[in-house]
TrEMBL record:
InterPro entries: Aminotrans_3, Aminotrans_3_PPA_site, PyrdxlP-dep_Trfase, PyrdxlP-dep_Trfase_major, PyrdxlP-dep_Trfase_small. One of its GO terms (molecular function) is pyridoxal phosphate binding. It holds the Pfam family Aminotran_3. The lineage of its organism: Bacteria, Pseudomonadati, Pseudomonadota, Alphaproteobacteria, Rhodobacterales. This is Aspartate aminotransferase family protein. It comes from the Bacteria. Keywords: Aminotransferase, Pyridoxal phosphate, Transferase. Its cofactor is pyridoxal 5'-phosphate. It comes from Pararhodobacter marinus. Belongs to the class-III pyridoxal-phosphate-dependent aminotransferase family. Gene3D superfamilies: Aspartate Aminotransferase, domain 1, Type I PLP-dependent aspartate aminotransferase-like (Major domain).
Length: 455
């Protein structure tokens, strides 16, 4: 067996890690963890640590690690047929069954699901479908996409442009032309301290409408948003936000894309975030929770209205010129079928709502009075602790992110994984949906210990 030192050396020499400080890592100055196993909400590593994964990987291992129901389904599928493509009408029992299961769970008004590999490529698909849709409708000028600052939609050329975080644009010449960003629905960072939540919503809606008018509504094709901002800080929207946004989009004939990569399949305590907030999207992006990351798979769920136009388009122009080799990969599809079944069998959607609320209460009890805790927020099995250097002014720390990074480091030493969210000092929690109250207590207790250590 390879020694830890050997692996660590190969890792530094050969492995280009995503979202990693390349120089620091290569020089051995950045954290390195070689993960070996997972069971329930815990992972283990080569150094002998057993860690409670308070972020479910990257908020994706929704059913928890080591589920035999899913791994057996993968093994069976791999043995019978590890691959066949889905082009020109080909399918497998797994991919067809999963389509049916996804559509049975999807919000009303949706028609079909297209499968991809990850959230980024699903959003690339979505934007292509929006452009195709408007071309078929005879609206070739209507192509611009509105996203939000602090939104996260992936890191491809288009999906990275949609993402509204500076790090994903800087030095990559992004965003691409035709992608516009509007204000983040982030009440804690409202422009004026004395603004009520309702007034903040009105301000956001006015900003959105201003942008549409300034750019010319006839050039705006779609609006993309996560029901709850995820990577941008785990921020539920202010009251009335989605109703107001949808009203504006309808007024200007703008497509709504609900990016449910994080919120899909139970994370908010409802099957989809769209159901939670009363969204009626034209397209829904899904990934992560679709297979609980047991295998890579994503999807674009297409609404009825758009589907009719896409069919008209292919009647006029031939087959849709869009496909990935691995679209609806049978192993991903088999994982998806077993995973969605497990979510139902173990009542995980309900558990996410119940234990998620418990986690926020436990967190409030443990750290709510801490002078550097500005806000504890979330929805379903999502929780964020916003840190501030001064509760009364809501001021941040300098440099931004330094304190949250240290707290996360102290938490890992105490056996709990959390995540420092970018562009702020925000501790993020998104545990597997099967979390128990006892495990929620452990997360809250360790957060309090780490905060005491750092601040
Ligand atoms: N959309 C959202 C809302 C996400 O959170 C993510 C990933 N964190 C993506 C899209 C991109 O997904 P992927 O990393 O699988 O490409």
């Amino acid at each position: 067996m390879l020694t830890n030192d050997q692996l660590a050396q190969w890792d530094r020499e050969s492995f280009f890690h995503p979202s990693t400080h390349l120089g620091q890592f290569a020089r051995g100055e950045a954290p390195q963890r070689i993960v070996t196993g997972g069971e329930g909400v815990y992972i283990t590593d080569r150094d002998g640590n057993r860690l409670l994964d308070g972020f479910a990987g990257l908020y994706c291992v929704n059913v928890g690690y080591g589920r035999r129901e899913v791994t057996d389904a993968i093994a069976k599928q791999a043995g019978e047929l590890s691959y066949y493509h889905a082009y020109v009408g080909h399918g497998t029992e797994a991919s067809i069954t999963l389509s049916k299961m996804v559509m049975d769970r999807a919000p009303e008004g949706m028609s079909k699901v297209y499968f991809g590999l990850g959230g980024s490529d699903a959003n690339e698909t979505n934007i292509k479908l929006v452009w195709y849709y408007n071309n078929i409708r005879g609206l070739p000028k209507k192509k611009k996409i509105i996203s939000r600052w602090r939104g996260y939609h992936g890191s491809g050329l288009m999906s990275g442009s949609l993402t509204g975080l500076e790090l994903f644009h800087k030095k990559f010449d992004l965003p691409l032309d035709g992608v516009l960003h509007t204000e983040a629905p982030y009440f804690y960072r409202r422009p004026e301290a004395d603004m009520s939540e309702g007034d903040f919503t009105k301000w956001l809606l006015a900003k959105l409408e201003e942008l549409i008018q300034r750019e010319d509504p006839d050039t705006i094709a779609a609006f993309i948003g996560e029901p709850v901002l995820g990577t941008g800080g785990i921020v539920p929207p202010p009251v009335g936000y989605w109703e107001g946004v949808q009203e504006i989009l309808r007024k200007y004939d703008i497509v709504l894309i609900a990016d449910e990569v994080v919120t899909g399949f139970g994370r908010l305590g409802t099957m989809f975030g769209s159901q939670h907030y009363g969204l009626q999207p034209d397209l829904i992006t899904i990934a992560k929770g679709l297979t609980s990351a047991y295998a890579p798979l994503s999807g674009s769920i297409v609404g009825n209205k758009m589907w009719q136009v896409l069919m008209q388009g292919t009647d006029e122009n031939g087959p849709i010129g869009h496909g990935w080799t691995y679209s609806a990969h049978p192993i991903g599809a088999a994982a998806g079928v077993a995973n969605l079944k497990l979510i139902d069998d173990l009542n995980m959607v309900e558990n996410a709502g119940k234990v998620g609320a418990y986690l926020r209460r436990a967190m409030a009890d443990a750290v709510g009075d801490h002078p550097n805790v500005g806000e504890i927020r979330g929805e379903g099995m999502l929780c964020a602790v916003e840190l501030t250097s001064d509760r009364s002014t809501r001021a941040g720390f300098s440099p931004v992110g330094s304190v949250a990074g240290k707290v996360v480091g102290e938490m890992v030493k105490r056996g709990v994984i959390s995540r420092a969210m970018p562009q702020g000092d925000i501790l993020g929690f998104a545990p597997p949906l099967c979390l128990t109250e006892g495990e929620a207590d452990q997360i809250a207790r360790v957060t309090a210990e780490a905060l005491r250590e750092v601040l």
